[in-house]
Amino acid sequence: MIWLGSVFLFTLLIGMPIAFVLGVSALAYFLFTGQTQFLLVLPQRMLAGMDMFVLLAIPLFVLAGSIMDVGGLTRRLIGVANSFVGRFRGGMSLTAIWGCFLFGGVSGSAAADAAAIGTVMVPDMKRQGYDVDYSAALIAVSSLMAPLVPPSIAMIIYGALSGTSISQLLIAGLAPGILLAVFLSAYAVYVARRENYPISPKQSAREIGQGLLKALPVLFLPVLIVGGIRGGVVTATEAASAAAIYALLVATFIYRAMSWRFLKEAMVSTAIITAAIYFLIGIANVAGFIFAIEQLPQKTVALLTGISDNPYVILLMVNLILLVMGMFLDTVGVLILTVPALTAIGQSLGMDPVHLGVMVVFNVLVGFVTPPVGLCLFVIAGVTGRPMEKIAVKALPMIGIAMIVLALITVFPQVSLILPELLGAR
User: Fold this and answer.
1) Measured between alpha carbons, how far is 162 from 257 in angstroms, rounded to an integer?
2) Residue 27 has what pLDDT?
3) What is the domain count for the chain?
4) For residues 161 and 181, what is the distance between their CA atoms, to the nearest angstrom?
5) Mind listing the pLDDT tens digit for each residue in 46-83?
6) Does this model's pTM top 0.85?
7) C-alpha angle 88/91/94, rounded to 5°?
8) Does the residue 206 lie in any domain?
9) Does any domain span residue 12?
10) Is 14 inside a domain boundary?
11) pLDDT tens across 124-166, in order?
12) Structural domain includes residue 28
């Protein structure tokens, strides 16, 4: 493990992508420990890690989001959010928050959420007198809801790596996502009153109805996914297939925004994103093989339980470790490195695997808005042209709100489990 850790840290510090960091580290481990006979099975291990039926949901959900984005859904979703919350003080900030929530039900990606909503909302908020750095920070933190609500690529990857029910994970992420949206909304109202931000013009019932009607086909996509899974009609993978077909039909025949050029762009984008994720998952299987050889999960459990036998202390240490890792690695990288050990820790504490999955995914997502990596901070900084460090300063109170939600998820399992239980998914 010394060689593995040394090569891992060196390649990570010189800026090598996480997939190659893991691959080179695994290769170094087998070479320097003299276990070269295992090099022959590495390609087989990689293919075995990718050859899983549940993983087909990833490219299908990505494709559905790409196609729906072509249909101009961002403006429609923002219009729906604004018609309901725009009348309040700081209505534009509330529109940004709930627009991120609604868009997350289509994209499943925090980076896509931040880019799409930021491109549309930040200029509008600036024209109404909002602080640009605050607006960018609000959208960056709000984009964390995207990987929590279905379809969540992060939940699918966690479920595939841990063997946890993906259907239950997708439904369980909804309540924490809503909780984060509510807390951020309360903070946005407080800031709006303090800064005396303007109120958007109140819309009539007819205007609200027209906007809702136009966006209804888009809003039905998350309902299709959750309803199909909840009703036992489809699995998560089959729901992803239905979502992709539905998105294509809606974009083509309802919004009439689909063309061969747009379809090609959606396909190419999906292929690039999927290839990167699948390669990481393949490397993850190799890393998991090494962890099994070194008995890393068992050693991690022994280490943490040796420090304390209090479950809350152990969970606090787990959260702190994940938060630090999230500052330097992306979501998939953290999940690959930690899921085997985390699953063992969860079992030793008697935790519900779905509760553990939601806690881990939410924890890792906080890294999207924490420097030095902060993927969503980089995305929103690129969209707005503002320095990332200034956006990060404005995001600090909202990161604190996300930490409060994380604490609630950790201490109260029902925050994650209430919807799966109410919907009969358990």
Assistant:
1) 39
2) 83
3) 1
4) 28
5) 887 777 776 777 788 888 877 877 766 667 777 777 77
6) no
7) 115
8) yes
9) no
10) no
11) 888 888 999 999 999 999 989 888 888 788 888 898 888 888 8
12) no
